[in-house]
Fold this protein.
Amino acid sequence: MARGALVLLGSGETAPGMTKVHREVLSRIESPRAVNLDTAYGFQLNVPQMSEKLEEYFATSLHVSLATLHFASYAASTELDRALFKQQVRQANYVFAGPGSPTYALDQWAPLRFEEDLVDVLEHDGTLCFASAAALTLGAFTAPIYEVYKVGVEELRWRTGLDVLAAVGLRCAVIPHYDNAEGGNYDTTRCYLGEVRLAELERQLPNGVAILGVDEHTALIFDFTADKLTVSGRSNGYWRLKGESRVLANGTTISLDELRTLKVEREAPTSFETPSKVGPLELGRLAAGGGENAIAALAQLVQLAATGGEGRIDPAPLVDGILAARLSAREQGQYELADSLRDLVIEAGFEVQDGPQGTTWTRRTD
Protein backbone atom coordinates (compact mmCIF):
# COMPACT_ATOMS: atom_id res chain seq x y z
CA MET A 1 0.00 0.00 0.00
CA ALA A 2 1.29 3.44 -0.90
CA ARG A 3 2.62 5.48 2.03
CA GLY A 4 3.94 8.56 0.25
CA ALA A 5 2.24 11.57 -1.32
CA LEU A 6 0.86 12.46 -4.71
CA VAL A 7 0.39 16.08 -5.82
CA LEU A 8 -1.74 16.88 -8.87
CA LEU A 9 -1.39 20.43 -10.21
CA GLY A 10 -4.08 21.75 -12.55
CA SER A 11 -1.58 24.17 -14.16
CA GLY A 12 0.95 26.87 -13.29
CA GLU A 13 3.62 24.54 -11.96
CA THR A 14 6.24 27.34 -11.92
CA ALA A 15 3.89 30.27 -11.29
CA PRO A 16 4.57 32.41 -8.20
CA GLY A 17 1.22 31.44 -6.69
CA MET A 18 2.16 27.75 -6.63
CA THR A 19 5.48 28.21 -4.86
CA LYS A 20 3.80 27.94 -1.47
CA VAL A 21 2.34 24.57 -2.46
CA HIS A 22 5.72 23.25 -3.62
CA ARG A 23 7.37 24.42 -0.38
CA GLU A 24 4.70 22.74 1.74
CA VAL A 25 5.14 19.44 -0.08
CA LEU A 26 8.94 19.55 -0.09
CA SER A 27 9.04 20.45 3.62
CA ARG A 28 7.83 16.93 4.37
CA ILE A 29 10.95 15.42 2.79
CA GLU A 30 14.05 15.54 4.98
CA SER A 31 16.63 15.18 2.18
CA PRO A 32 15.01 15.61 -1.25
CA ARG A 33 16.38 13.56 -4.11
CA ALA A 34 14.38 15.38 -6.73
CA VAL A 35 14.17 14.47 -10.40
CA ASN A 36 12.36 15.97 -13.39
CA LEU A 37 11.00 13.72 -16.13
CA ASP A 38 11.30 15.38 -19.56
CA THR A 39 9.29 12.73 -21.42
CA ALA A 40 6.02 14.65 -21.79
CA TYR A 41 7.79 17.45 -23.69
CA GLY A 42 10.46 15.20 -25.23
CA PHE A 43 9.08 15.69 -28.75
CA GLN A 44 9.66 19.46 -28.65
CA LEU A 45 12.69 21.21 -30.11
CA ASN A 46 13.36 23.18 -26.92
CA VAL A 47 13.77 20.26 -24.51
CA PRO A 48 17.03 21.59 -22.96
CA GLN A 49 15.51 25.03 -22.42
CA MET A 50 12.36 23.58 -20.86
CA SER A 51 14.43 21.48 -18.47
CA GLU A 52 16.70 24.40 -17.62
CA LYS A 53 13.70 26.58 -16.77
CA LEU A 54 12.31 23.96 -14.37
CA GLU A 55 15.71 23.35 -12.77
CA GLU A 56 16.24 27.08 -12.28
CA TYR A 57 12.80 27.50 -10.70
CA PHE A 58 13.45 24.73 -8.17
CA ALA A 59 16.93 26.08 -7.37
CA THR A 60 15.91 29.74 -7.06
CA SER A 61 12.41 29.58 -5.59
CA LEU A 62 12.55 26.31 -3.65
CA HIS A 63 16.30 25.91 -2.93
CA VAL A 64 16.15 22.33 -4.16
CA SER A 65 18.43 20.71 -6.72
CA LEU A 66 16.31 19.16 -9.48
CA ALA A 67 18.06 16.69 -11.80
CA THR A 68 16.44 16.08 -15.17
CA LEU A 69 16.19 12.43 -16.25
CA HIS A 70 16.19 12.40 -20.04
CA PHE A 71 13.89 9.85 -21.63
CA ALA A 72 12.33 11.29 -24.79
CA SER A 73 11.71 8.18 -26.88
CA TYR A 74 11.12 4.51 -26.11
CA ALA A 75 11.84 3.48 -29.68
CA ALA A 76 15.14 5.39 -29.83
CA SER A 77 16.36 4.11 -26.44
CA THR A 78 18.40 1.01 -25.68
CA GLU A 79 17.59 -1.63 -23.08
CA LEU A 80 20.30 -0.08 -20.91
CA ASP A 81 18.78 3.41 -21.30
CA ARG A 82 15.41 2.08 -20.18
CA ALA A 83 16.82 0.17 -17.21
CA LEU A 84 18.83 3.20 -16.03
CA PHE A 85 15.81 5.50 -16.34
CA LYS A 86 13.59 3.18 -14.30
CA GLN A 87 16.30 2.67 -11.68
CA GLN A 88 16.95 6.42 -11.30
CA VAL A 89 13.24 7.10 -10.84
CA ARG A 90 12.99 4.46 -8.11
CA GLN A 91 15.99 5.95 -6.31
CA ALA A 92 14.37 9.39 -6.14
CA ASN A 93 12.03 10.48 -3.34
CA TYR A 94 10.53 13.42 -5.27
CA VAL A 95 9.52 12.91 -8.90
CA PHE A 96 8.24 15.86 -10.95
CA ALA A 97 6.64 15.79 -14.40
CA GLY A 98 4.68 18.54 -16.07
CA PRO A 99 4.05 20.22 -19.41
CA GLY A 100 3.86 18.59 -22.81
CA SER A 101 1.58 16.01 -24.42
CA PRO A 102 -0.12 13.35 -22.27
CA THR A 103 -0.48 10.85 -25.12
CA TYR A 104 3.15 11.29 -26.18
CA ALA A 105 4.24 10.59 -22.61
CA LEU A 106 2.01 7.50 -22.47
CA ASP A 107 3.46 6.15 -25.71
CA GLN A 108 6.96 6.27 -24.15
CA TRP A 109 6.06 5.18 -20.60
CA ALA A 110 3.52 2.41 -21.19
CA PRO A 111 5.99 -0.06 -22.82
CA LEU A 112 8.27 0.46 -19.79
CA ARG A 113 5.50 -0.57 -17.38
CA PHE A 114 6.38 2.75 -15.83
CA GLU A 115 3.39 2.71 -13.47
CA GLU A 116 5.24 0.08 -11.43
CA ASP A 117 8.16 2.45 -10.89
CA LEU A 118 5.90 5.34 -9.87
CA VAL A 119 3.99 3.16 -7.42
CA ASP A 120 7.33 1.96 -6.02
CA VAL A 121 8.26 5.58 -5.25
CA LEU A 122 5.00 5.96 -3.31
CA GLU A 123 5.46 2.67 -1.49
CA HIS A 124 8.86 3.88 -0.26
CA ASP A 125 7.32 7.06 1.18
CA GLY A 126 8.28 9.22 -1.80
CA THR A 127 6.35 12.01 -3.50
CA LEU A 128 5.06 12.30 -7.04
CA CYS A 129 4.25 15.82 -8.28
CA PHE A 130 2.56 15.67 -11.68
CA ALA A 131 1.22 18.81 -13.35
CA SER A 132 -1.01 19.59 -16.34
CA ALA A 133 -0.15 17.18 -19.21
CA ALA A 134 1.67 14.66 -17.01
CA ALA A 135 -1.21 14.60 -14.50
CA LEU A 136 -3.52 13.27 -17.23
CA THR A 137 -1.46 10.09 -17.50
CA LEU A 138 -1.96 8.93 -13.91
CA GLY A 139 -5.60 7.91 -14.15
CA ALA A 140 -7.16 4.72 -15.45
CA PHE A 141 -7.85 6.52 -18.73
CA THR A 142 -6.27 9.54 -20.43
CA ALA A 143 -8.01 12.08 -22.66
CA PRO A 144 -6.15 12.81 -25.95
CA ILE A 145 -6.15 16.57 -25.50
CA TYR A 146 -3.89 17.59 -28.39
CA GLU A 147 -5.54 15.17 -30.81
CA VAL A 148 -9.02 16.52 -30.04
CA TYR A 149 -8.42 20.23 -29.43
CA LYS A 150 -5.52 20.99 -31.79
CA VAL A 151 -5.56 18.28 -34.48
CA GLY A 152 -8.97 16.60 -34.52
CA VAL A 153 -9.64 12.86 -34.46
CA GLU A 154 -12.23 10.76 -36.24
CA GLU A 155 -13.50 9.29 -32.99
CA LEU A 156 -13.58 10.81 -29.51
CA ARG A 157 -12.21 8.12 -27.22
CA TRP A 158 -10.01 7.55 -24.17
CA ARG A 159 -6.48 6.17 -24.13
CA THR A 160 -5.48 3.66 -21.47
CA GLY A 161 -3.68 5.50 -18.65
CA LEU A 162 -1.01 4.41 -16.20
CA ASP A 163 -3.70 3.94 -13.51
CA VAL A 164 -1.33 4.85 -10.65
CA LEU A 165 -4.27 6.02 -8.50
CA ALA A 166 -5.66 2.49 -8.53
CA ALA A 167 -2.86 1.63 -6.07
CA VAL A 168 -4.83 3.55 -3.43
CA GLY A 169 -8.26 2.38 -4.49
CA LEU A 170 -9.22 5.35 -6.69
CA ARG A 171 -10.39 4.53 -10.20
CA CYS A 172 -10.62 7.74 -12.17
CA ALA A 173 -9.48 9.82 -15.13
CA VAL A 174 -7.61 13.03 -14.26
CA ILE A 175 -8.61 16.28 -16.00
CA PRO A 176 -6.41 19.33 -15.19
CA HIS A 177 -7.08 22.87 -16.51
CA TYR A 178 -10.66 22.13 -15.42
CA ASP A 179 -11.76 25.79 -15.31
CA ASN A 180 -9.75 27.03 -18.29
CA ALA A 181 -11.30 30.15 -19.83
CA GLU A 182 -8.90 30.96 -22.67
CA GLY A 183 -11.64 30.44 -25.23
CA GLY A 184 -13.48 33.59 -24.12
CA ASN A 185 -16.84 33.12 -25.79
CA TYR A 186 -16.45 29.41 -26.49
CA ASP A 187 -15.94 26.64 -24.00
CA THR A 188 -12.34 25.60 -23.27
CA THR A 189 -13.02 24.29 -19.78
CA ARG A 190 -12.24 20.67 -18.93
CA CYS A 191 -8.67 20.94 -20.25
CA TYR A 192 -9.75 22.57 -23.54
CA LEU A 193 -12.19 19.76 -24.34
CA GLY A 194 -15.27 21.73 -23.25
CA GLU A 195 -18.10 20.33 -21.19
CA VAL A 196 -19.90 18.78 -24.17
CA ARG A 197 -16.92 16.66 -25.22
CA LEU A 198 -16.07 15.67 -21.66
CA ALA A 199 -19.66 14.57 -21.09
CA GLU A 200 -19.39 12.35 -24.18
CA LEU A 201 -16.13 10.85 -22.92
CA GLU A 202 -17.66 10.40 -19.48
CA ARG A 203 -20.42 8.24 -20.98
CA GLN A 204 -17.72 5.92 -22.33
CA LEU A 205 -16.18 5.22 -18.91
CA PRO A 206 -16.78 1.82 -17.31
CA ASN A 207 -19.04 1.69 -14.26
CA GLY A 208 -17.31 2.93 -11.13
CA VAL A 209 -14.66 5.01 -12.93
CA ALA A 210 -14.90 8.68 -11.96
CA ILE A 211 -13.44 11.91 -13.34
CA LEU A 212 -11.11 13.87 -11.06
CA GLY A 213 -10.98 17.52 -12.15
CA VAL A 214 -8.36 20.04 -11.01
CA ASP A 215 -8.75 23.78 -11.60
CA GLU A 216 -5.85 25.84 -12.90
CA HIS A 217 -3.27 27.00 -10.33
CA THR A 218 -4.74 24.48 -7.90
CA ALA A 219 -3.19 21.48 -6.14
CA LEU A 220 -4.76 18.24 -4.95
CA ILE A 221 -2.41 16.85 -2.30
CA PHE A 222 -2.91 13.15 -1.52
CA ASP A 223 -1.33 12.09 1.77
CA PHE A 224 -1.50 8.31 1.61
CA THR A 225 -0.08 7.79 5.10
CA ALA A 226 -2.93 9.81 6.59
CA ASP A 227 -5.31 8.59 3.85
CA LYS A 228 -6.56 12.11 3.11
CA LEU A 229 -6.77 14.67 0.31
CA THR A 230 -6.19 18.42 0.76
CA VAL A 231 -7.12 21.07 -1.80
CA SER A 232 -4.72 24.01 -1.99
CA GLY A 233 -3.81 26.87 -4.33
CA ARG A 234 -6.27 29.16 -6.09
CA SER A 235 -9.43 27.12 -6.68
CA ASN A 236 -11.14 23.71 -6.42
CA GLY A 237 -11.11 20.06 -7.36
CA TYR A 238 -14.05 17.96 -8.59
CA TRP A 239 -15.13 14.32 -8.34
CA ARG A 240 -17.61 13.33 -11.07
CA LEU A 241 -19.61 10.15 -11.56
CA LYS A 242 -22.12 9.64 -14.38
CA GLY A 243 -22.67 13.33 -15.02
CA GLU A 244 -22.93 14.29 -11.37
CA SER A 245 -20.27 16.27 -9.57
CA ARG A 246 -19.03 17.02 -6.06
CA VAL A 247 -16.90 20.11 -5.52
CA LEU A 248 -13.73 19.52 -3.50
CA ALA A 249 -13.53 23.03 -2.11
CA ASN A 250 -10.33 25.01 -1.82
CA GLY A 251 -8.80 24.87 1.65
CA THR A 252 -10.65 21.71 2.67
CA THR A 253 -9.45 18.22 3.55
CA ILE A 254 -11.37 15.03 2.79
CA SER A 255 -10.62 11.44 3.77
CA LEU A 256 -9.80 9.20 0.84
CA ASP A 257 -12.22 6.65 2.26
CA GLU A 258 -14.97 9.22 1.83
CA LEU A 259 -13.83 9.91 -1.72
CA ARG A 260 -13.90 6.23 -2.60
CA THR A 261 -17.56 6.02 -1.56
CA LEU A 262 -18.56 9.59 -2.33
CA LYS A 263 -22.20 10.45 -2.96
CA VAL A 264 -22.47 13.29 -5.45
CA GLU A 265 -25.09 15.89 -6.30
CA ARG A 266 -26.05 16.88 -9.83
CA GLU A 267 -24.19 19.92 -11.11
CA ALA A 268 -25.74 22.68 -13.21
CA PRO A 269 -25.62 22.35 -17.04
CA THR A 270 -22.47 23.96 -18.40
CA SER A 271 -22.63 23.95 -22.20
CA PHE A 272 -21.79 27.27 -23.86
CA GLU A 273 -21.16 26.14 -27.42
CA THR A 274 -23.44 28.67 -29.13
CA PRO A 275 -25.36 31.70 -27.81
CA SER A 276 -28.54 30.52 -29.55
CA LYS A 277 -28.71 27.41 -27.37
CA VAL A 278 -28.66 29.35 -24.11
CA GLY A 279 -30.77 32.50 -23.86
CA PRO A 280 -30.13 35.69 -21.87
CA LEU A 281 -32.42 34.70 -19.00
CA GLU A 282 -30.70 31.37 -18.45
CA LEU A 283 -27.26 32.96 -18.77
CA GLY A 284 -28.27 35.60 -16.24
CA ARG A 285 -29.36 32.89 -13.81
CA LEU A 286 -26.03 31.08 -14.16
CA ALA A 287 -24.07 34.33 -13.76
CA ALA A 288 -26.01 35.30 -10.64
CA GLY A 289 -25.49 31.84 -9.14
CA GLY A 290 -21.72 32.31 -8.86
CA GLY A 291 -19.29 29.43 -8.86
CA GLU A 292 -17.22 28.04 -11.71
CA ASN A 293 -19.81 28.84 -14.43
CA ALA A 294 -20.47 32.50 -13.53
CA ILE A 295 -17.59 34.05 -15.52
CA ALA A 296 -18.40 31.97 -18.61
CA ALA A 297 -22.05 33.03 -18.37
CA LEU A 298 -21.05 36.69 -18.03
CA ALA A 299 -18.86 36.35 -21.09
CA GLN A 300 -21.75 34.94 -23.09
CA LEU A 301 -24.06 37.76 -21.98
CA VAL A 302 -21.60 40.48 -22.97
CA GLN A 303 -20.85 38.76 -26.28
CA LEU A 304 -24.57 38.45 -27.03
CA ALA A 305 -25.06 42.13 -26.30
CA ALA A 306 -22.14 43.09 -28.51
CA THR A 307 -22.90 40.90 -31.52
CA GLY A 308 -26.68 40.92 -31.67
CA GLY A 309 -28.87 38.00 -32.69
CA GLU A 310 -31.99 36.57 -31.16
CA GLY A 311 -32.50 37.89 -27.64
CA ARG A 312 -30.25 40.93 -28.15
CA ILE A 313 -29.91 42.94 -24.96
CA ASP A 314 -28.59 46.36 -23.97
CA PRO A 315 -24.93 45.89 -22.98
CA ALA A 316 -24.74 48.90 -20.66
CA PRO A 317 -26.15 47.32 -17.46
CA LEU A 318 -24.05 44.19 -18.02
CA VAL A 319 -20.78 46.01 -18.59
CA ASP A 320 -21.45 48.39 -15.69
CA GLY A 321 -22.22 45.43 -13.45
CA ILE A 322 -19.07 43.56 -14.42
CA LEU A 323 -16.89 46.63 -13.87
CA ALA A 324 -18.57 47.22 -10.49
CA ALA A 325 -17.72 43.63 -9.56
CA ARG A 326 -14.16 44.31 -10.72
CA LEU A 327 -13.92 47.36 -8.44
CA SER A 328 -15.20 45.33 -5.50
CA ALA A 329 -12.65 42.58 -6.22
CA ARG A 330 -9.80 45.13 -6.29
CA GLU A 331 -10.91 46.66 -3.00
CA GLN A 332 -10.81 43.19 -1.43
CA GLY A 333 -7.35 42.46 -2.81
CA GLN A 334 -8.60 39.91 -5.36
CA TYR A 335 -6.46 41.33 -8.12
CA GLU A 336 -6.40 38.22 -10.31
CA LEU A 337 -10.21 38.12 -10.37
CA ALA A 338 -10.32 41.88 -11.07
CA ASP A 339 -7.96 41.46 -14.04
CA SER A 340 -10.05 38.56 -15.37
CA LEU A 341 -13.22 40.66 -15.25
CA ARG A 342 -11.55 43.56 -17.07
CA ASP A 343 -10.12 41.22 -19.73
CA LEU A 344 -13.55 39.67 -20.20
CA VAL A 345 -15.07 43.07 -21.07
CA ILE A 346 -12.19 43.92 -23.43
CA GLU A 347 -12.41 40.56 -25.22
CA ALA A 348 -16.15 41.15 -25.75
CA GLY A 349 -15.40 44.27 -27.80
CA PHE A 350 -15.30 47.17 -25.36
CA GLU A 351 -12.57 49.66 -24.42
CA VAL A 352 -12.02 50.18 -20.68
CA GLN A 353 -10.34 53.31 -19.31
CA ASP A 354 -9.27 53.77 -15.68
CA GLY A 355 -8.97 57.41 -14.60
CA PRO A 356 -9.05 59.71 -11.56
CA GLN A 357 -12.83 59.89 -11.75
CA GLY A 358 -13.28 56.14 -11.95
CA THR A 359 -13.65 53.62 -14.78
CA THR A 360 -15.39 54.33 -18.08
CA TRP A 361 -16.05 52.19 -21.12
CA THR A 362 -16.90 52.52 -24.81
CA ARG A 363 -17.74 50.04 -27.54
CA ARG A 364 -14.86 49.40 -29.97
CA THR A 365 -15.67 50.29 -33.58
CA ASP A 366 -12.77 48.56 -35.34
Summary: The longest strand covers residues 218-223. Residues 315-331 form the longest helix (17 residues). The chain is about 35% helix and 20% strand. The chain has two domains: 5-266, 275-363.
